[in-house]
C-alpha cells in the first residue's frame, strides 16, 4: 500500500474541516491551511463530497464543511475509498485479489498478508477525531492500545 498525494491531501483537508466542524470554510482557507493548491484541492474535495465525507455551500459565504461527525470518519475507509486496497501486493488483497503464478507454496504471501492485516488493523481503528485529539493506536505485544501523543 502506498498513500498518494491525493490521499495525504484529502486527510489534511478533512483534518482542517474537522478542526472547524460546523463551520463552512472557503476552498482558499482550506488551501492556505493544507498548503495544497486550490486547483488540486477542488478535485479532492469533489471526490470527498461524492463519497459523503464533506458537503458544500454555494454563494458569497460558501465553501466546504464536514458532513459527518469526526468520530464517524474512519481513516481506513477514507484511504480505501481514495486509494484502493490496503494490501501491499495484489495476491494478499482481500478486496482486489489477483492470483499469482507463484502463489502456491509462496513464502512471501504470509508476510504480505500480515502487513495488510496490520495496516488495516491500525487504520480501521483510527477516526478523524482520534487524529484531531492526537490519540493514535499502537501495537503493544499482540494488542492494539491507544495513547494520546504530544508532539
From TrEMBL:
Keywords: DNA-binding. It comes from the Bacteria. It holds the Pfam family Rrf2. InterPro entries: TR_Rrf2-type_CS, Tscrpt_reg_Rrf2, WH-like_DNA-bd_sf, WH_DNA-bd_sf. PROSITE patterns: HTH_RRF2_1, HTH_RRF2_2. NCBIfam families: rrf2_super (TIGR00738). This is Rrf2 family transcriptional regulator.
Amino acid at each position: 500500500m502506498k498513500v498518494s498525494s491525493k490521499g495525504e491531501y484529502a486527510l489534511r483537508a478533512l483534518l482542517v474541516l474537522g478542526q472547524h466542524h460546523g463551520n463552512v470554510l472557503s476552498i482558499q482557507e482550506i488551501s492556505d491551511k493544507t498548503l495544497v493548491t486550490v486547483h488540486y484541492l477542488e478535485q479532492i474535495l469533489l471526490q470527498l463530497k461524492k463519497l459523503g465525507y464533506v458537503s458544500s455551500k454555494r454563494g458569497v459565504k460558501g465553501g466546504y464543511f464536514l458532513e459527518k461527525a469526526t468520530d464517524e470518519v474512519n481513516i481506513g475507509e477514507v484511504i480505501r475509498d481514495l486509494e484502493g486496497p490496503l494490501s501491499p501486493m495484489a495476491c494478499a488483497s482481500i478486496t482486489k485479489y489477483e492470483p499469482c503464478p507463484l502463489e502456491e507454496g509462496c513464502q512471501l504471501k504470509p508476510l504480505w498478508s500480515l502487513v495488510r492485516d496490520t495496516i488495516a488493523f491500525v487504520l480501521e481503528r483510527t477516526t478523524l477525531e482520534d487524529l484531531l485529539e492526537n490519540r493514535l493506536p499502537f501495537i503493544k505485544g499482540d494488542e492494539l492500545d491507544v495513547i494520546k501523543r504530544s508532539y
